[in-house]
Amino acid sequence: MARWLTGALALLVLLSLPAFVTRPHHRHVLIMILLYAMLAAAWNILAGYCGQISLGHAIFFGLGAYTSTTLVKQAAISPWIGMVAGAVVAVVVSQAIGFPVFRLRGHYFAIATIALGEIVQTLFINWDWIGGARGVFIPIRRPDSLLHLQFHESKQNYYYVALAMFALALLVTRVLERSRAGYYFRAIREDQEAAASLGINVARSKQLAMAISAGLTALGGTFYAQYILFIDPESVLSLSLSILICLVAVLGGVGTLWGPLLGATVLVPLSEGTRVLLGGGGKALDLLIYGGLIVLISVAQPGGLMALWRKGWRRAA
Amino acid sequence: MTAEILLQSVISGILMGFVYALIAAGLSLIFGLMEIVNFAHGEFLMLAMFGAFWGWALWSVDPLLSLPLTTLALFVLGVLTYKGIIRWILGGPMLAQIFATFGLAILLRSGAQFLFGVDFHVVRDPWIHGRISLGGLFIGLPQLTASVAALAAFAGLYWFLTHTETGLALQATAQDRQAASLMGINTERMFALGWGIGSACVGVAGSLLAIFFYVFPDVGATFALLAYVTVALGGFGNVPATLLAGVIVGVVEVLGGILINPALKYAIVFLLYLLVVLIRPQGLFGKF
Amino acid sequence: MSLLSVSGITKRFGGVVANQNISFRVAPGELVGIIGPNGAGKSTLFDVITGIEWPDAGEIRLEERRLTGLRPDQVSRLGVGRTFQKLRPFQGMTVLENVTVGALQKCRDVAHARREAQEALERVGLGEKADAYARTLSTGQRKRLELARALATRPRLLLLDEVTGGVDQGSIPGLISLIQDLHRAGMSLVVIEHNMRVIMAMAQRIVALHLGEVIADGPPEAVTRDRRVVEAYLGQAYA
Predict the structure, then answer these.
(1) A142 contact C CB<8A
(2) In this complex, which of A178, A186, A200 lies closest to C73 when CB atoms are compared?
(3) pLDDT digits (tens, 9 = 90+) for B206-259
(4) Contact C92 A199 (CB under 8 A)
(5) What is the ipTM metric for this complex?
(6) Fold that domain C1-79+155-239 belongs to in CATH
(7) CA B61 to CA B72: how far, in whole Å?
(8) Cβ distance of B263 and A123 shorter than 8 Å
(9) Quick check: B85 and A285 CB within 8 A?
(10) Which 8-state DSSP code applies to residue B259?
């Protein structure tokens, strides 16, 4: 009961935030927090719950962004339809990828996903029809329209779309946690052979986790494209994006429901803040702090901030 | 496409392959010892290259002259990494193992960017420059030097592992940690030594690369990716096999570049790797 | 008709022959013990039966169904449950969740599966530990947990690898009577056991392995008197 209350309270706070946070730049930070929280939650389903540490999730993000953008540009199809189409493309690609790479385990799997990410990024850089290395601008639509998922008057509407997507990721995670598939995912994470000896079709479960994770990630990609209105292989398909998604989840706590939001709440403002303070300039101070934080967390508290939070909670109670 | 260009490319691929092999050998040695991939390996290489570069820029010391010092520095860095980070996550969850070194990679790369900026640096007028012509084929002397030296370092590593007491103790630890410790081997020392030697490999490789390659904070990323592929191709922990795997990677990279599309050369290497692990998940020469 | 028939199983690892032409049968409701010194190929045999390893020659059937060539999960769904010599509980899950994973095989509803898992836990005497994390259990409790997890899949045949190995002396009688209860309730079991006294007390029939081969197969009294079995065990602790 208390857990439901906390959840409801959190949701209420999230819903009313734009009323207090009015400056566009601050709203931008909130939107990015929700976006990264959502991406980390999607990654978490595959990596945190099912134990398959993917370092190539930018593939699915990029597919979402590029599918909807291409449909908008070439056929003036609503990005909402493009969003669904992007998710479908990502799911199909994820299944094709999963077939070979799920035979690999642990570090081998992680490295294979890096290699896949690099292949996909290279292909997009050299694919002129969809913009190549130069990238694509999404045509600007006025006036603001939910149908075309573009809002220029105020960032508030973007905020609510991002919130809805984060809520969706949270909901999917919650449902999975209590479902048969969720039990199977965790069993596979803990011990693949033992899981198989209990009748779990390991390959099929991994593919399912991958499909859900890839589909959700692609939704985030479409949102990003419609929000920033410019995409290129560097911003939506790079290894550093894949890693950033993982970092958010790892910092917050993998395999936990609220870890991704916690991680994003710490990392995104850190990144935005240092950029404002130092005016960018390629100083990469935010990454310097990230790197240090991640090493520290890995060594001292592999459970992430969620584990610290729980410890503090227990001590207080 | 003439046969000469093809031959020329294959030769430069093989030459580069020896350097890849040396980088990968360090990675493979560490993995063989404790089943941990050093995701900061490329950043270690980058640091070695910067070390060589600053030695030249500040005191006009040629990278080849500062090589022993750079190698020693990297050895120390490896040992410190083990003592400061790796030792604490050895029995930990896989995620902690992956992200501890990943975090270190980000820390080092952004640290280099913070201190040195994102510009490309180059060592001008190194001792060895120019090229030689062999029956109509041109080979860059720096590349040739780097390649031969990398091969020599590789051979030295192999000799050390197979012919010295310490090397054999390292191998015994890799085979069976418990048995080794029962035989009186100080496995803790072996782990630290393994990290030292594994990092020293990129100390050598970085100094060699600095005489003909740009030096910049992101330089490690590409080499590291190629090193992972090389190690995975050869089979993790199988140090000798990385030599052949390195040459394969080097040749495929160059041939893919000239025969298919230069922009796709790395993608082709990665594709080859995926094809191999699809058929043999343990790599070409790995044992599961 | 036999429940399990193992015929002519041979398994090599490189040059090492782990199982050499092994054949034996298990009748419905029977409790068969498998004994043999270390390295006799007992655990490999379980791995071959459950599909973790594929044999180089020979065939395994569960009644009419061929098990050879199937994956571990398929073998499990056909009704063969097992425990591992080296215990493999899902460390990061609670005891109840561990067993629920097993129960979900036959019963798709999670709430229902959790109730079944709780019952299985009561059956092995771990009911009170349901909410503890598996990593906090003692070795004896982990053995019970693995047993409950396998039981929850409602198997027709249970393969137990080293029931008393590594368990403190005080917990052994409880584990023995647990297995005897299961047997009395009609479960068919194949049990690998090092402790001769334990296996003599439980098994109706004993199959003795040595260097990968079956050297004796029969009632416990006959097998322990067998000259080759005694020789194989010479020098080993005859507990």
Answers:
(1) no
(2) A200
(3) 999 999 899 999 899 889 889 988 888 887 778 888 899 999 999 999 888 888
(4) no
(5) 0.90
(6) Rossmann fold (3.40.50)
(7) 16
(8) no
(9) no
(10) I
